[in-house]
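WARN retry 2 of 3 for item q-0093 after timeout on previous attempt; input resubmitted unchanged.
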Amino acid sequence: MSAHPRLGRVIDDQLFARLSADPYADALGVTLEEVRPGYARAALTVEDRHTNAHGALHGGVVVSLADVVHAAASNSHGTVAVAVEVHAELLSTAPVGARLVCEGSEISRTRRTGLYRIEVYAGQTHVATCLGRVVRRETPILDPE
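OK item q-0093 returned
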């Protein structure tokens, strides 16, 4: 485990690898870039396959990107967290070729629940804002050694 001087503590490499091993995120082209306790960032470059019948960025892609970040941020403490609610506001779109960056931050965490704010941007354009809630379990994500 290492720390970036500006960012503080990062998560264990094995936990990062587990959170990055998401087949659905891989299928979409999402790359998990950073995970710290209570925080995650991922990115996606918009491709033709991410558009709807109108040729615009599909809202489901944006919400899926936010959900990947929500999952990583909420599971970053090393125990299983399961989403029970996600509210998304789609604010704008982004063209094919745009790089979407999504960041999620913990607002509140108790022994049983967690609340996360997730933002999606394409450059300076605010594409979406989301609020997600999880139920936390005591089950460790990694097998104890």
